[in-house]
């Protein structure tokens, strides 16, 4: 470096100017890992892979997705909470980040204070789906079968704390009948069991069920949001199907370990915002029944506010249901 430049930089550094500028330019210098706390091939995995690819283009580095499934998403979350807070290990999780702090009275990490928020990503409708030969063609008929068959029916989910668990709880509460729950490390493997008819029913995000519903390989009875989904226009809402209280949508957010420097959080958040404007990502999200969040929700502050409010929202519901994982 020419002498003059170094002297100029040192002077700027002494004035407190050089360090942040250099720091921002320096990150990231290598591959970033994003942990998905569910198995590959499922809906959280799909959202993460699309987001990671687009973020990588903005960051000029590869963003690699790693699946750490199990225990309703808490194993993957724990891995990230315990990682170095340097921006190179991230977590893309869903609504489970709001339910686990109440569902699990003991967790191997601080479920509320163990993370920095980077930004919200998307909110995805869920669908109630069944194996192809399930003896019902509407939500009302499915409810009648559930009432009649009860625990003879196998309901697949991704473990306690998963969105499919939560959705199943809402369904069983609304119907007033329990089914036998069969947990998987994610709904990617669970949907394979549904396709082969080894389990009967499941709730899952449209990001994992749209193609199989369209091809007729599984049955779908309703979408769990207030409005119908454009990509599956014939599917009634829970309310239209007669179960208005069976409503939930699955939000996803990007996290970093507690203590990740603020400028790195901001850099990642900017990359997330850019990714969520990416035409290819927006088109694929739309085809799978979802859309990126508004840009002002893909920020650390908006994400933290929303997450904390959602913990408070689910706490009394879970406590009233008496549902705990431990
Ligand atoms: N959809 C799953 C859930 O029930 C998770 C996944 O595999 O993405 O939470």
Automatic annotation (TrEMBL):
| The organism's place on the tree of life at top rank | Bacteria
Which PROSITE patterns does the UniProt entry name for this protein? TAT (PS51318)
Signal peptide feature range: 1-23
Coiled coil location: none
Q: Which SUPFAM superfamilies match?
A: Periplasmic binding protein-like II
Keywords in alphabetical order: Signal
Family according to the record: Belongs to the UPF0065 (bug) family.
Q: What is this protein called?
A: Tricarboxylate transport protein TctC
Q: Per the UniProt entry, what species is this protein from, by scientific name? A: uncultured Acetobacteraceae bacterium
